[in-house]
Amino acid sequence: MAESPKLVLDFEKPIIEIERRIAQLRELSVNEDPEIQREIERLETKSQKLRKEIYSRLSRWQRVLLSRHPQRPYTLDLVQRIFTDFIELHGDRNFRDDPAIVAGIARLDSRSVAIIGHQKGRDMKEKIRRNFGYPHPEGYRKALRVMKLAEKFSRPIISFVDTPGAYPGIGAEERGQGEAIARNLFEMSHLQVPIVVIVIGEGGSGGALGIGVGDSIMMMENTWYSVISPEGCASILFHDAAKAEAAAESMKVTPADLLEMGLIDRILEEPIGGAHADYDKAAAILKKAINLELDKLLEMPRTQLVSRRIEKFSAMGVCKEI
Q1: What are the sequence ranges of the domains in the chain?
Q2: Cβ–Cβ under 8 Å, residues 171 and 131
Q3: Which residues lie across from 229 on neighbouring strands?
Q4: pTM for this one?
Q5: In this predicted model, what pLDDT tens digit does every residue of 178-208 receive, in sequence order?
Q6: 63-314: which CATH architecture?
Q7: Which residue among 34, 129, 165, 228 is the one 20 to 30 A from 205 at the CA level?
Q8: Count of CB atoms within 10 A of residue 149's CB?
């Protein structure tokens, strides 16, 4: 688990209070007093029930907050628990390496696979090195280099999406941020190997879509995916970023919304309390889902994979003439 200080969101406070009370009682119960033990059991039952109630009726904005939780598992946390023999590959063979995107090869049980994913940092030094999860164009070019290797050696591609968006700085624009993302969209749509995409945190705009074209698109339960962040939308529509909560409700950014609109294929349930509450269980859920998807996709002919993928994304969105 992460070592950064534990963040408590407002809606989690009632649960934390009960857990604090349980901890206090355990300290008192040195001699295992039966009466104190019964009170501990009662509070534990109450805590579990309250946790289920709270996390089953989260608002869209609350899920956005959970997707950004500083203790939430990032790509490398999940790779460590799902795959073996991971070898990270660096650099785009053009400008430099971008630590905001990690890429490499690994084994998923008996399968050889390629992995790409956004990576954020835990402490301030790591956050700065990873650019807070905002990729530069060389990050997308590195990802494409690894995806092309995967196609050459017939390895399925697993993509983990977790970024607020592509980096909008002057240097990134000068080096072709838009072109790098557009190139990835084109190339990923034509790669002749299965691609499984999972949104594990934030799915911000083209920054997410730059490694988000796949045969199977899944989202973890407490994530968001949209053309712009709620804060960005609120700044444009309401001229006030503080109205992000209202924007999130209007934008319909959660997995349930996207599944209803046909933009994703599956929602992956998280451990009660969110993925940050149990890394191992969250990783086990992802591993099972990835294997199930690969079992289906690897049976398809390569040409069918490509045509199916292009049709899938071409069908997204509806145009109406008035």
Answers
A1: 10-57, 63-314
A2: no
A3: none
A4: 0.88
A5: 999 999 999 999 999 999 999 999 999 899 9
A6: Alpha-Beta Complex (3.90)
A7: 129
A8: 16
